[in-house]
Write a structure and sequence with these properties.
Layout: H1 2-7, H2 14-22, E1 43-46, E2 49-51, H3 54-63, E3 71-75, H4 81-89, E4 92-97, H5 100-112, E5 118-122, E6 135-140, H6 149-153, E7 155-166, E8 171-179, E9 182-191
Parallel strand pairs: 3-4, 3-6, 4-5, 6-7
Antiparallel strand pairs: 1-2, 7-8, 8-9
Bound molecules: S-adenosyl-L-homocysteine.
Length: about 230
């Protein structure tokens, strides 16, 4: 999968490729999809959410330029797979998931995969995780109309934030780099992710979205499906 689907599509960072080869994706997919764990596509994990396509996980990890001493924030834990890949590249990962059951199963999967440097928080990730900030890299795995200001405030000097920005149908993967008070924006291409949503506990949740509403497979024409 890594040679054919990830390296061939342009991910070059040897540390990212090594992480993709090392982290066992089958630990993070529901049992009934284990046979598909190494297909390069998103898979349903419940609550209308998906485990990201491996290519997209690799693309975002490379775009975030994660270094061995880095402190990383991930918004949207989902299955925990992306956090495990980031944890392989960084010193510590703090990851936030708004769905309690997903946060719990991600925590269990990360433990089963032997990831000891990941901290999972059940909360609204659009607020970041200020207690552990600033972060050298912030990876947002769900799409929003704009980059939340509070996340930019939690980005260290020299830090990179990577996030899909757009509407439900068309999004660009953006990289924002902080240089002191200045923020530099780069467009890394078309992608398609599930939406970044407000806090579940605030009552905006529609649980009927479960599975039926998930955007699996995503024949979108975009470069990657998160
Ligand atoms: N990185 C994940 C991909 C998960 S998909 C993986 O590898 O499996 C995006 C996730 O973002 C979903 O689990 C969704 O519930 C979560 N999410 C959406 N809005 C959020 C918010 N405001 N705060 C935290 N998580 C959020």
């Amino acid at each position: 999968m890594v040679d054919r689907d990830i390296e061939a599509r342009g991910v070059r960072d040897p540390r990212v490729l090594d992480a993709m080869r090392t982290v066992p994706r089958e630990v993070f997919v529901p049992e009934r999809f284990e046979d598909s764990a190494y297909d390069d596509r998103p898979l349903p994990i419940g609550r209308g959410q998906t485990i990201s396509q491996p290519y997209v996980v690799a693309l975002m990890a490379e775009a975030a330029e994660v270094q061995p001493d880095d402190r990383v924030l991930e918004v949207g834990t989902g299955s925990g797979y992306g956090a495990a890949v980031l944890a392989h590249l960084a010193s510590h990962v703090w990851t936030v998931e708004r769905h309690g059951p997903l946060a719990a199963s991600a925590r269990a999967a990360l433990q089963a995969a032997g990831c000891k440097n990941v901290h999972v928080l059940h909360a609204d990730g659009t607020r970041g995780w200020p207690e552990a900030s600033p972060y050298d890299a912030i990876v947002v795995t769900a799409a929003g109309r704009e980059v939340p200001e509070v996340l930019l405030e939690q980005l260290a000097d020299g830090g990179r934030l990577v996030m899909p920005v757009g509407d439900r149908f068309a999004q660009q993967l953006l990289r924002v780099r902080r240089r002191g008070d200045r923020l530099e924006y780069e467009d890394l291409g078309a992608v398609r992710f599930v939406p970044l949503l407000p806090d579940v506990e605030n009552g905006t949740e529609d649980e009927a979205e479960d599975e039926a509403g998930s955007e699996v497979g995503g024949a979108t024409g975009a470069d990657g499906v998160g």
